[in-house]
Amino acid sequence: MLLRIRSAPDPDRDLLTRYDAVIVGSGAAGGMAAHVLTSHGLNVLLLEAGRKVDVEGELKSMEWPYDHPRRGAMPASYHALTAKEYAIRQPPYAAGVPHDKVFSYVQSWGGSDYSRNLVVDEKEHPYTGTRYAWVRSRCLGGKTNIWGRLALRLSDHDFKAASRDGYGEDWPIAYADVAPYYDRVDRYLGISGVPEGLAHLPDSVFQRPTRLNAAEVRLREAIAKMGRVLTPYRAGVTTDGLKHNKYRSRCYGRGACARRAGGCDIHAAFDSPTGLISPALDTGHLTIRTGATAFEVTLDPATGLARGVAFIDTETHKTYEAAGKAIVLAASTLESTRLMLLSRSQAHPAGIGNSSGHVGHNFCEHLMGPSVFGLVKDLAGRPRTLDDGRPGGFYLARFRNLETKHRDFIRGYGFEGSSGTGMFPSNAHSTPGLGSAFKKQVRDYAGAFIGMGGFGEVLPRYEHAVSIDPEVKDQWGVPVLRFDYRFGDNEKRMAADMAVTGREMFEAAGIEVLGADTDLLTEGWSIHELGTARMGRDPRTSVLNEFQQAHDVRNLFVVDGSSHVSASCQNPTWTIMALAWRSCDYLAGEMRKGAFP
Amino acid sequence: MSDASRVTRRGLLRLAGGALAASQVPGLRAAAAAPDLRFFTPDEYALADALAEIVIPADAHSGGARAAGAALYIDGRLAEAFTDEPRALWREGLRLIDALAAREHGEAFVRLTAPQQVRLLERLAAAESKPGTAEERFFAELKRRTIDAYYTSRIGIHDELEYKGNVLLDEFAGIDVSQKR
Questions:
Q1: What is the ipTM metric for this complex?
Q2: How many Cβ pairs closer than 8 A exist between chain A and B?
Q3: Largest CA distance in chain B
Q4: Pick from A70, A389, A428: which is nearest to B172 by CB?
Q5: Which of A45, A158, A325, B83 has the fewest CB atoms inside 10 Å of its own CB, making it the most exposed?
Q6: pLDDT value at position B25?
Q7: Helix (H, G, I), strand (E, B) or coil at A380
Q8: Interhelix angle for B3-17 vs B42-55, to 10°?
Q9: Which of B119, B163, B171, B180 to probe the A interface (max A CBs under 10 A)?
């Protein structure tokens, strides 16, 4: 009998093609690039350093703690870095830690066993220099698999901030340029919220909003009298469903995304694999190669254009090169920057696209730490309500330095917060005593607390930078990043104001303030690193033009947060995707015109 | 833990206490019902179980730490702990509690009357905001782990806290502010 043995598909066959575009990274930016470029009919290769994780198998969103052997915690041989470790030690943080695996602080949140395969082991991915809590995810979809879901727009208060207060640079675009793309992102991916009509926090095309509970409404109404706005969490979650996307369900308010490090196993919360990449695969124009750690953007010396991307197979450590007419970097702000700095050549001795010397510089993000926590006394002892069946609590919009100028600092901050009963009574550990009286106090007060924490704009400064460490390499032999970055005086004065206004708003609402933290958390805590390959009109002071196209290399695009000129105080994911969409529309148009032979 | 050692331990317990005594002493009864110990000795388990039940007792509202299996859960976490530190803390802490009971009442803690047991722990709890003695520090550890075990248990979540979430909602709960502008 003759057996026909089908030969295994050659994993390297995909590299015989010269693609229209090679994308590095598969998170919000890379997924959006894949979606937009394939929708234009371009033949696209997507490189992802990590593997494709079975997210549904990992997240188990509705598993009860008592059905998990460690009630959702990681194995004891795995360690999540603590706030104290970040505060007293220097990177590389995993050095000298005896545990089998070491994770960033997000893995200390409840239910971290469900996300441990979605974030990197710090032992495998060291970095050096100043303190920085760098949270990374190396898998298909990257951090979108567990992101915080707050989906906010920037406005001209942000894009033209330099013109308003004289600090830094304006973006080379205005809100009017981006607004149509924000609309597209809203409609394609779904977003929940309440329109508030604020110039500095523009409304999206919202689906069904989530709701507030009694304490949150009380705070909303009290601060409305101060001219401030608290609105239900603007979540990058489809609450009404998306007829055009068969991979995603609408939100059913199960609440696991807010209870754990994040993630949604029915994909109501946006994630890149189901929101962008699977639909892009369905076009037939997308090829994905996972386990591909990019280490260099190669150059064609004859044309001066980027030729392709050199990468290491994560498993075999063999090196390859993928060729493309256009190269799109979307590996996350700091990884794209690392890749540019590593791509040295005769024509680009300081890294590809870095004739300005600005790659790695102007590093900015959001500061975190100041927070306020209080009690709404008359809610104690009320019948239990369902408070956490939603993708987030509330967002309190920026109010500083809009029409007036604060004497101590420039720019602004917002707060994220929530109230109500969760699955675990967070007041239990601080409730004194024991016995039935203790039980009753925990039970009666579990739903009566409210808390919120600030997210503030960190100013970009040229001297705040990442660079390539001259000695330390990761296990693939790729030199690692070295940080030279710390908060400055404007950030410290802003943080002090956050604690004051947080308290003032709670008191205005009749909320008894139980605690107000004024300390800054370690740099990086917000997971919103930005700015290290900024856009601008002047090639001497910026890396990219308004279409995230390298001034120096016209077929190189960098479509992630590294392109942002300033951090604003709004969470960046929605802006990353709106800009990537706009730039990839432009890229496709240029390619059609023959700009990238 | 092998089956053989489990059987042996049960056997030892029977020999030590006798069937009649075991059924009369609450701590020993609980120990006999917990064959899957991974760190505690049966005596330690009986004490930990008694202590946890005093921190979070059964009452008219819901079951307590004993019914929620808090001590057994703590046993598992201690058995798996990456360093010996928490194991040493518990072994020594339980010994100190028994020593304290013996000093004051001449008996092991589980053999004290219920009011004596509660009073002893209440005294340690009184110092919980700034524990000074080793016993007071152990109380903080006992309470912390009992809280974590109890409020993640079926009884703690559903009966005690009457948690309403982790269900499929057609409509979000709460107050709709989108119509109230």
A1: 0.94
A2: 155
A3: 74
A4: A389
A5: B83
A6: 43
A7: coil
A8: 80
A9: B163
